[in-house]
Each structure stands twice: as structure tokens, then as C-alpha cells.
Amino acid sequence: MMELDDLKTTWKKEVNMTTQTVDFNSIKSEVSKLDKHAKMSWSIEAIGALFGIFATVIFTWVWLDSPIIFTQVVAVILILSLVYSARLFFGIQQAETQDDWTLLAKINIQIEKREKEVKMLRNLAVMQLIPMFSIMTLASYAIYIELTGMILPSMTFMIGWVAGLVYFIFLHFHNRSHLNNKFLPALEQLYKLKKQLND
Amino acid sequence: MAAEFEQLIKVHGGRIRAIARRYADTDAVDDLYQEILVQLWRSIDSFRGDAKPETWIYRIGLNTALTSVRKQIRLREGKAAILNSQLGSEESLGGRCQAEILSEFMDSLADVDSSIMMMYLDGLNGQEMSSVLGMKLNAVQVRINRLKKMFSDRYLEVE
Q1: Which of B66, B148, B156 sits opposite A193 (nearest CB)?
Q2: Cβ contacts (< 8 Å) between B51 and chain A: which residues?
Q3: CA–CA gap between residue B128 and residue B45 (Å, rounded)
Q4: What's the half-sphere exposure (Cβ side, CA atoms, 13 Å) at A71?
């Protein structure tokens, strides 16, 4: 006759099995590496956005003597879109669920973050790529007018725009594949775990 | 702080490795073990000694294992499905040691049941399990009874 409680001794044996010595320094260095990586990725995004804003301001209102209204409007739109993007990326990392250290709370936090990421990736084309491509097109056109004084874009300039369009289309499909192969399966797994805890 | 942590790991290293073994494929156990150690070190401040070290280790260990290692969990689920289908045949149950039965039974469980089983075998009470998982105490007790019954149905007559 064997009951579940009989396995307690076996489990104790497994738990008391000797383990190799822990390299404490490697743990500490791993933690600082992860912290550095997290800080670095935020810094890169923040610095990128700040640099974009700074470059736009310098180019439009300092470098150009007297920019036309069109250039100034495009510059303002570009600055606003950079601020919006930075805010959006920052918001994704925030979860409203309070961490009370239980597995359920941890899963809820993960679900909240993954859902935001999935929502953002699903709407990326409409919310980010198309507006960003339009703004970049307008900005480059404004620069073109300022530098050449011509209204009609040259053939080289048109080729540049087409290359930009191809790049944005590539980004769109890259994100879709990332969404389907990474984020949705991870979210599915989290829903399953939550269901197991709630059943 | 570092000395205190090292002492904790010295005492509970086996427990952490046992958790890692349950939730990762053989070749990924070391990675998960290391990941749990990293998370334990990051949250050492949250361990103030007002909870049992075992509870704290299960809390961090299960959080890490169940929410970070998606790939390994998927593989583990596949393994569990195969084991479940094998367990349908009673002829295959005879003549095995308890360690094999423990491993086989745990592998056949869903992730949350498996974690309840680990904590139960380790002597944590329902309240402690409930505080680790975020489930109601009643729900934990129901799960434990269900696990006992499942185990009896599977192994009682055969062994």
C-alpha cells in the first residue's frame, strides 16, 4: 500500500542532495549585468528621443536662417511624435497590478505587460509605422525644399522615399512575426497558468 | 547580507535545484537554477526572516520557473502529455522505486498542481502554500485532496 505522504521521504532525499558550490560572484555579476542591460535599453531609447528632438530644434530654428512655415509645422509634428513614442514605450513597462509576491500576482503583472505589448504590436502599423513614415517623408521633403528651394522632388529623392517605404514594410512584417512567434505564445502560456490557479 | 545569502543557499541549494529540475528540461536545469539564484539575490531584501526560508524560496523559485522559462515549460508540457498517455496502462506501473514514481507522478501534473505537490511534500502548510500561490486556502486544500485521490487511483492498487 502506498500513499502520497509516503513520497515525503523521497522528496526530502531529493531536496537534501548535495549540490555543487555556488559561485556567488557569478550571481552578483549576473545581477549587475541584467540591471545594466535594463538601464542601458531605457537610456538608448531616452537618448534617441532626446537626440531626435534636439536635432530637429537645432536644424529647424538654428541652422536654417528663416525656415518656411511648412518646415516649422513638420518639425513640431516630429517633436510631438517623438515625445508620444517615448511615452508609449515607457507606459508598456508599467503595470497597474500591485506585486504582493504571490504567483497569481506575478502572473497578472506579466499578463498585463504582455497584453500591452501585444496591443501595441497589433496596432503598430496604424499607430506608429504609418504616422512615422508620413512624418519622415514630410520632414525629408521639408529639408529638401529648404536645401534646394525646389518644390518638385528629384528622382534620387523619390528613390530614397521608396527605399524608406520598403524599410517600413519590412519592419511591419518583422513585428508581425515577432508577435505571432514570441508574444502570443507567451501570453497563451500565462493565461493557462492563471486558469490553473483559478480553477 | 552576502554572507547571510550564501548561508541560505548552502542550506537550501538542494531545494532550489529540485524546483529547477521539476520545471526545466535536463539540459536547462543549470540555467534555471542560476536564474532562481539571481532572483533570490535580487529579492533578498524582501526576506526579513518573518517567513520560513522554505516559503520564500518556493515563492521566488516558482515565480521564476513559471513565468520566465517559457520554452522549457512548453517542452515539459509535451513530456507530461506523453507520460499521461503512458500512465493510462496499469501494466507499466509495477516494480519501480519511489523516486521514479514521484518523478513520473509530478511530470504528469499541470504546473500549478506540481508546485502544490512539491510544497506539500516539503511540509509547507495550506496557509503557506496559499501565500506563495495567491490562491484561497480552501482551494489549496481541495487541490491537495484531489492530488491524494489521483495518486491513490493511480498507484494504490498497483504497488
Answers
A1: B66
A2: none
A3: 19
A4: 22
CB B9 within 8 A of CB A21: no
Q: Which of A139, A130, A147, A123 is nearest to A77 (CA)?
A: A139
ipTM over 0.90: no
Q: Are A107 and B66 an interchain contact pair (Cβ–Cβ within 8 Å)?
A: yes
Contact state of A27 with B132 under an 8 Å Cβ cutoff: no
* Cell numbers standing for residue B142: 481541495
A164: CB partners within 8 A, 6+ apart: A133, A136, A137, A140
| CATH classification number, B2-156, choose in 1.10.1740.10, 3.30.720.120, 1.25.40.20, 3.40.630.30 | 1.10.1740.10
Cell numbers describing residue B140: 489549496
| Nearest-10 Cα torsion for A45, A49, A52, A54 | -120
Q: Establish, for the pair of chains A and B, how many residue pairs have beta carbons separated by less than 8 Å.
A: 124
Cβ–Cβ under 8 Å, residues B138 and A47: no
Domain range summary for chain A, segments of one domain joined by +: 28-94, 98-199
Q: From chain B, pick out residues whose CB is under 8 angstroms from the CB of A24.
A: 2, 5-6, 9
Q: CA-to-CA distance for B27 and B42, rounded, in angstroms? A: 25
**Domain layout of chain B by residue ranges:** 2-156
Residue B135 C-alpha cell reads as: 490562491
AA letter at B15? R
The answer to whether B134 contacts A105, with C-beta atoms less than 8 Å apart, is yes
Q: Is A34 helix (H, G, I), strand (E, B) or coil?
A: helix
pLDDT digits (tens, 9 = 90+) for B18-54: 898 888 887 888 888 888 988 888 888 777 666 788 8
For B112, the closest of A14, A27, A196 (CB atoms) is: A196
Query: If you count DSSP H runs as helices and E runs as strands, how many of each does chain B have, helices first?
Result: 8, 0
Interface test with chain B among A106, A117, A182, by most B beta carbons within 10 Å: A106
pLDDT tens digits, one per residue of A51-81:
888 888 888 888 887 788 888 888 898 888 8
User: Do the Cβ atoms of A116 and A80 come closer than 8 Å?
Assistant: no
- The amino acid sitting at B74 is R
User: Considering only alpha carbons, which residue of chain B is nearest residue A190?
Assistant: B67
